[in-house]
Structure formats: C-alpha cells, structure tokens
Amino acid sequence: MKTEKKERKEKTEEKKQTEEKKAPRPANVSPYQLDKTQTLKAARALLKHLAAEATSSDKPNLLNDPEDPTESAAPIWLVLTAKKYITDTRKLKPSRVELPFPLKNPSNTTVCLIVKDPQRHYKDLVATAGLQDIVTKVVGIGKLEKKFKSFESRRQLMGSHEIFIADQRVIPKLPTVLGTTFLRRTAKIPLPIALDSSETPAGFKAKVEKTIRSTYVHLSPAASTNIRVGLSSMTPEQVVDNVAQVMDTMTLKALPGGWRNVRSLFIKSPNSASLPIYMAAELYGDEDVLKPEEEQQRLLAMAEKAAERKERKQAKNAKRKGLSETKPVDEEKAAEEEGQAPKKKTKVSAEEKK
C-alpha cells in the first residue's frame, strides 16, 4: 500500500513539473512596474461604487449637467506612498503631467491669467489667439497687489474662476500677494506657464490648452502624495491609462529612485475606501543599509547639528534675559596685560554723592 501511494505522489509531482515547464513564462518581468490588470479591477470596482452611490442618494444633484457630465463628476485620486521622502522642501511650483484623457475640457473652462506687468500685452495676445471665452480675466502682478488686498476680494476672485494660471516668473511673489485664501486649497493654486514677451498667438494657445489638459503633483516634505487621475464619468480603461501616464512621469522625473522607491499605490474617491493596485515586495534593499563609515559620518553630522541647535538656544535665552553676547571687560586684568598700573578706585563720601 505504501509503495502504491509513493508511486502516485511521484507521478503527480512529475505531472506538475512538466506542466510548469510547458507553461510560458514572461521574460525579464520586473516586479517594479504597474500591474494594469489589478489597476483595471480596482478602477471597475471604484466606478461601480460611485455609480451606486449616485443613484442611491434620495436628493437629486441640481448641479448635474447632462451635456457635460465632467462638471459634477467625482474626482478619482491616486495615493502614492514612497519608501523615502519624495522631497526635502515644499515646492511652490507643482510638477505637470499631461494626461491622455484630461480632467478638464479646455473649451468650457474659465481661466484667470496672472502675468508680469504690463498686462496689456497679454490681453492683446489672448484676443489674437482667440481665447476670450477661456481666459476671461488677465491681471498683472502689480494690479493684483493693489486691488486684491482684503480677504473678501481674494475670496471673490477665487470663486469666479475654475483655474488660475500664472507666469512662472511671478510665482515666487504669489504666496504674499494671494495669501492663505488660495494656498489652502490645492485645486485653486495657480498653475505655472512659461511666457515671454516674444510669445506668438499659436504658441500661447497651445501652452494654455496643454496646461488645462494636465494634472499636477504638489510635492511637500513627506513620504506620500495624492494626485488627481480621473473622474467618475470616465471608463475604467481611461482611468488605467491616466494612472499609467502619471506613474511613468513620476518615476522618471519627480520620484527619486524611481519604481524602487514606491512602497504602495491606491486609488480612491473623496468618500470611498482606498483600493490597492501596487504593493512593494521589499521595504528596503542592500543599498539602503549604511556601511560602518557611512553610519559614523551620519552620527557626526547629527552631533554637529545638535551642537548648533544648543548654541542657538543659548543665544536666544541670553537675549531674552537681557544679557549681552560679549563678557564684561575686567579693567584691572586689561591694565596688567598692557603693563600699566591699574587705576585705584576712589571712595566717594556720602556728601559728594549728594
């Protein structure tokens, strides 16, 4: 009986081995890439959930436009988590990714253009390029500083346009000019565009339309970021193509380390759970482990930073107590060093004090 069982086991194992040999194996398949099959499954499940959520609501949405469903469509976000920090500093200028299926339609989007003075040149450029219906307002940085000082005026400006595009030469001034009214919401942060005085109408129109068709990645000192990649009115295949385009651009240009630095990817809507589409097999590799000499350099750098922080703290405490940074000079010691006789302190009587 035992010999028969062993023979059966050996036969089944041989069959498995032959089947594995016959099965075609993909050549040079890297685990560091987007699985489009899993992404398609997640996109279908998420869009199905959003459709059921829209039909199950008792109150109808009065903002729904049957001619343009993108106006009231829910956004779909890609949540990217990295193994290391994506950047060390907060970048005011976002990274641009042109999507194959844009989130905004350039023909029916209202744009406010913020330019360098004088603004008359760019107003004429908008007219000659035929963008009056899209770029409904052109304002120079000087006029923006003078006219929109109050919180109420800035709030009205923010609500009157869907997208704000700014000449990249004036972007460093915008945080002080616009304030937290705009910077608090990433959807209203002005998008950068490269303009100059020798801009042609055709080139200007192409740049504006490309800016509207793109999505933007706002990077900050963190290991995760959210990127808008789709709408609930899109098909699952369109969402997958947008996600693939975003990841190709991010891993090549914005993400240090490329795919090896990606820890996980999820897609979600504002009110849904996050659906996973990628999980890294390894959280760290051999290149992430420091060598003894590198570890020693890291500890020395940390000690130097700690000493600098301690010195700054002591200086601040001294200023708060009203103490001067220089020590008081001892006159007797200074005279002895110069070889002169120290000055004798004369006693002053009470009558002289009076």
Automatic annotation (TrEMBL):
Residues 1-36, 300-354 are annotated as: Disordered. Keywords: Ribonucleoprotein, Ribosomal protein. Pfam families: Ribosomal_L1. It comes from the Eukaryota. GO terms for cellular component: ribosome. Residues 1-23, 322-332 have a biased composition (Basic and acidic residues). Residues 312-321 have a biased composition (Basic residues). The keyword Ribosomal protein applies. InterPro entries: Ribosomal_uL1-like, Ribosomal_uL1/biogenesis, Ribosomal_uL1_3-a/b-sand. This is Ribosomal protein L1p/L10e family-domain-containing protein.
